[in-house]
Amino acid sequence: MKRNFLLCGSLGWCLEVFWTGLHALMAGEPTMMGKTSLLMFPIYGCAAVIKPVYQKISSIPVFFRGCIYTAGIFAAEFSSGSILKYFNMCPWDYSRAPLHFKGIIRFDYAPVWFVTGLIFEKILTKSS
To answer: pTM for this structure?
Structure first.
């Protein structure tokens, strides 16, 4: 589980830097600067629970597994974001985005979390 925690934390950081770099490009920033926070590593690392969850739900069709991962990611994002916000340490603020909830989660990111959960599933179940 420790190896998967480190793998998920690292992969999460990389995906976030890529995602924020794409947003910078779309905003017309030629440097395409991507960024993340050190605080995100343990949050992304918690995605290691996808492997034991997958072992219990592997017989469920992929669409429903993706929905389960999406709900889990929203729950993790909301709980971690709420705790970090309480301490004025939350590295993200979605309060100006459409479809946000308390500035902590964005429901329009559901497709992103759906795909991300399935990517993590594939990576984690291929690793030993």
So the answer is: 0.89
Q: How buried is 3 (Cβ within 10 angstroms: 0-12 exposed, 13-18 middle, 19+ buried)?
A: exposed
Rounded to whole angstroms, how far apart are CA atoms 123 and 108?
24
Q: What is the DSSP string of 7-42?
A: HHHHHHHHHHHHHHHHHHHHTT-TT------TTHHH
Closest listed residue to residue 29, CA positions, set 20, 16, 41, 40: 20
* Percent of the chain predicted with pLDDT > 70: 98
Nearest to 53 by CA among 25, 33, 73, 83: 73
> Would you place residue 9 in the very low, low, confident or very high pLDDT band (cuts 50, 70, 90)?
very high
